[in-house]
Design goal:
about 650 residues; alpha/beta; Rossmann fold; 18 helices; elongated
């Protein structure tokens, strides 16, 4: 059974919201993961509450243990009434429609002053309304399922569950005997008309641990060994033994995804922790954690969610734990990124969702990292991302390019650039002189050469952060690093100098002579040389004659403006493979070939780093460059040195 249509009006923050079958399924009728985004208070949880309440109302008519009884009736999961009506309106309603093969099931929650006839006019596929008389009262109505065998079987053998935003898993170090715990799961025997599993799940790891142990034992029950090797018991079917071993491998795959290493499940002796299961690192051939209790909160949360999906489906059909692709149902997760580190959000969670192609996931999130990850994992037509509260479908995955960039910037700076940040902190502590940071390994060489040649600036007592390929740098990490450094009080002035060839950096640091970030940290973009030389890299501070200086091997820098967009040079002497730079005011320092080099085997382009080093080392032909334009940069540096920070 899947959600097919939903229509909500004037409920909470939602004025009008509508989703239909054509949006919710792929071309081969596979359910798309549905992701709801929007700021707090935009109606995401309100939308989920209608879907979850519909599942409760439909299943409660079929099973006697879904909702608590109250007299001759039962207690609603979701309260109706004026509290649900959007401000300045006098009615609200939500309609949800599900289908299973040829059958369909409906739900309506009506609040306030609206007639049944008016609701029919708004949404014409409400078949249940034909049997409901007009009334001004608030009411809920759902399709009758108590005699529907197909509905009952579907709910029993598939996964229908809701993980709310207040879900949790207790950490391993808590003495569970010292606190009051109301367990959701019980050991009651199954009775007729009992569903015997909760739709709403706040915590599930304890139950999941016991279930994993059962699966593990099932996978071993048919196998024994003797001096001739491993055998299957004669009373057992070899096919069953092999199939059950696949069940535990599926669980191992889920855990391996979560902990991001190849894991094997092994058995603990009694009395080792609260879990009989331990995890073994196959690559390093060592114990990873002594028990499942030792997983982090985020890892435990993911394990609880995705193993519950399997557990709910294999209760009556063990094949479901063998063939995850056959599990069906609806899994609703509010704030899916809760408790999860960004790598779990970006890399792990989308891949876990992909393991269950027939499960209809309905998810809310605030995380750009999860959105970037799922956009990378799924084709754009195979996911549905909805902006709340207006219900507008976000069509293009390209809309999340800034999220992808944010993810890589964050992980690079916090992980890959930790060495660079540590080096910078150590350099800051080594002296009290103003320290110049540049965004590339060539820029500091040009500035150091210029300062040496410009007599007016010999008195500037400054240091440069000098680095080569061992330091990963660029405009993004440099910007991130100074944002970090500005939070550390220090007595040394830190001056970050950016090129002016990126709009984002220009908007941030190029609109004034310099920007003071606090705690003696400053930033600016190199000033423009002239109105014709504005958005440029530092190499354009040299004259055209200097820029085209040949080294001893006859190589030189090339300007993109020297080439047609075809890659042919304007003077017909060269060709470049860097066609994306042709016709632009950028430097081309590779893949330029003489027309006579038909095989294009020997590039005549000089690398930007070799160009900068030739100037710094005053190599032949590079000794007498004109550095006059660099005075614009050192004038700003002098202003910063003389600046009195508050």
């Amino acid at each position: 059974m899947y959600l097919q249509n939903i229509y909500i009006e004037n409920m909470g923050a939602i004025e009008k919201f509508k989703l239909t079958h054509s949006q919710l399924f792929t071309s081969d009728n596979t359910p798309k993961p549905i992701i709801l985004v929007g700021k707090n208070g935009s109606g995401k949880t309100t939308l989920l509450s209608s879907i979850v309440d519909a599942l409760y109302e439909l299943s409660n008519d079929c099973f006697s243990d879904v909702l608590p009884k109250s007299g001759m009736g039962y207690k609603y999961f979701k309260l109706s009434g004026s509290r649900n009506i959007r401000v300045h309106n006098d009615f609200a309603f939500s309609y949800v429609n599900f289908s299973k093969k040829e059958g369909f099931y409906e739900y309506l929650d009506k609040n306030g002053n609206i007639s049944i006839e008016e609701i029919k006019l708004k949404f014409n596929c409400l078949n249940i309304l034909h049997d409901i008389p007009n009334t001004d009262k608030n009411f809920k109505y759902a399709s009758k399922t108590n005699e529907d065998i197909d509905f009952k079987n579907d709910f029993l053998i598939n996964s229908y569950c809701y993980f709310p935003s207040d879900r949790y898993e207790l950490p391993y170090w808590i003495n569970k005997g010292a606190i009051e715990i109301s367990e959701q799961f019980s050991d009651e025997l199954g009775f007729a008309n009992y569903l015997d599993k909760d739709i709403l799940i706040r915590k599930s790891l304890n139950q999941v641990k016991n279930w994993i142990l059962d699966v593990f034992l099932d996978s071993k029950v048919s196998i024994y060994s003797n001096d001739k090797g491993l055998h299957v018991k004669e009373s057992e079917n070899i096919g069953n033994a092999i199939a059950l071993s696949q069940s535990i491998r599926n669980i191992e795959e889920i855990i391996s995804n979560i902990v991001q290493r190849k894991i094997s499940i092994q058995l603990n002796y009694r009395g080792i922790g609260q879990s009989r299961i331990k995890l073994f690192d196959l690559e390093n051939q060592c114990e990873f954690v002594p028990s499942l209790d030792n997983l982090s909160a985020g890892q435990s949360t993911l394990l609880g969610i995705f193993c519950t999906i399997i557990q709910y489906s294999d209760r009556t059909n063990l094949n479901k734990s063998i063939h995850l692709q056959d599990i069906e149902g609806i899994v609703i997760i509010d704030e899916v990124d809760l408790h999860l580190h960004i790598e779990l959000q970006h890399d792990v969670l989308p891949n876990l969702i992909k393991l269950f192609p027939k499960v209809q996931f309905i998810i809310t999130t605030h995380s750009p990292f999860f959105l970037a990850g799922i956009s990378k994992t799924f084709y754009k037509d195979d996911i549905l991302i909805i902006n709340m509260p207006n219900g507008i479908e976000i069509q293009s995955i390209d809309d999340f390019s800034e999220f992808t960039k944010a993810y890589y910037l964050f992980t690079n700076v916090t992980n890959d650039y930790k060495t660079e940040l540590d080096k910078l902190k150590a350099t800051i502590e080594s002296s009290n002189k103003p320290l110049i940071l540049t965004e590339g390994k060539t820029d500091w060489k040009h500035l150091k050469s210029a300062k040496r040649s410009l007599e007016n600036y010999n008195g500037l007592d400054i240091d440069f952060l000098e680095y080569e390929d061992n330091v990963k740098m660029g405009s993004d990490p440099l910007s991130k690093m100074i944002e970090s450094i500005k939070n550390i009080p220090n007595n040394r002035k830190i001056i970050a100098i950016f090129d002016r060839d990126e709009d984002l950096i220009l908007n941030k640091y190029g609109e004034e002579p310099f920007k003071y970030l606090g705690n003696n940290v400053y930033a600016f973009c190199i000033p423009k040389v002239s109105n014709n030389l504005d958005q440029i890299s530092i190499e354009y501070y040299y004259s055209e004659e200097n820029l085209k200086t040949l080294d001893k091997q006859g190589r030189r820098l090339f300007c993109g403006s020297e080439f047609h967009t075809s890659g042919n040079s304007i003077d017909n002497g060269y060709q470049t493979k860097e066609k994306n730079k042709a016709g632009k005011r950028v430097i081309i320092d590779s893949n330029v070939f003489c027309d006579t080099d038909r095989a294009q085997e020997n590039s005549v382009a000089l690398s930007k780093n070799n160009f900068a080093e030739n100037i710094l080392n005053m190599e032949e032909g590079f000794q007498h460059f004109d550095f006059s334009n660099f005075s614009k940069i050192f004038d700003v540096v002098r202003m910063i040195i003389n600046h009195e920070s508050l």
